[in-house]
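Researcher: For the annotation table, I need structure tokens for Mitochondrial carnitine/acylcarnitine carrier protein. Please keep the output clean. Sequence:
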Amino acid sequence: MAQKGKGEAVSPVKNFFAGGAGGVCLILAGQPLDTIKVNMQTQARPLPGQPPLYKNTLDCFRKISAQKGIHGLYKGLGAPLAGITPIMAITFFGYGLGKRLQLKGPDDGQRLTSPQVFAAGMLAGVCSTAIMAPVERVKCLLQVQVHNPVVKYAGSVDCALQVYTERGVRGLYKGTLLTLLRDVPATGMYFMTYEWLKEFLTPEGKSVAQLSSIRILLAGGFAGVCNWVVAIPMDVLKSRFQIAHEGRYQGFADVLREVLREEGPRGLYKGFTAAMLRAFPANAACFFGFEVSLKFLNWLVPGK
Ligand SMILES: CC(=O)O[C@H](CC(=O)[O-])C[N+](C)(C)C
């Protein structure tokens, strides 16, 4: 494909702050559908002859909002807001670092190829897992408690403290391998799709840096969808593993076996619709927030 303009200068530090702002936008736009996704993925198997608790995404939305109000859909918001902001900051930092490591200099004008962008994205996935794993653990525990009659956790901090008191740091980091397996390839896909689409959507004779807001939203939205197409099977296993009682599974192979035995390969795509419905607006908002913040930072502190 023809190169549309020079490669932009990359500053991992500016990426860090702009990524944090993108993370806030992502959560505000995507949290209700994330709650639905996790509840769909983790609902108990119905007894023979009984209907499932949630028949589909819409049914899950109706039941949770009828039971707990719209507030119920924002349950566990504290943890992702406090967690996703640094996660996205680190993700974009790792991505910037991955790009910088492959460039000759911070603004050498070279554009990275798609595999190089994918590699930078994978590095971002490794970096973000350090925070992503415990944040996802707390978030999943809180989200599934929505349909429990007994409220065990009063909120994100209480949940993190209880898990820490009962199981220590290992308890908080339960599901780290699955988080890595989910996010390393998915984050590669995320950034590769975004950069490719930005280039694709740039009109001939224009530079990628001049891309309109609507096209940034489109590229970001589709990047989120592609992230989840790759991530969802591992996400199903991760969510189940992270909410399971101690000793229920020996490892993730156990969870995989159980899902395949009980539900077949379709079970690995549970919550797919909710994940996709959330992915587009959440990531469109995220990349838009990121690009606007980066422009602002470049105006505030020109250069690297
Ligand atoms: C799983 C996750 O958090 O995905 C992020 C986007 C989203 O929809 O939440 C992207 N990324 C994995 C790159 C952080």
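Researcher: And a one-line annotation?
Model: Residues 26, 91, 128, 183, 186-187, 190, 224, 227, 231, 279, 282-283 surround LMUUFLXL (CB under 6 Å).
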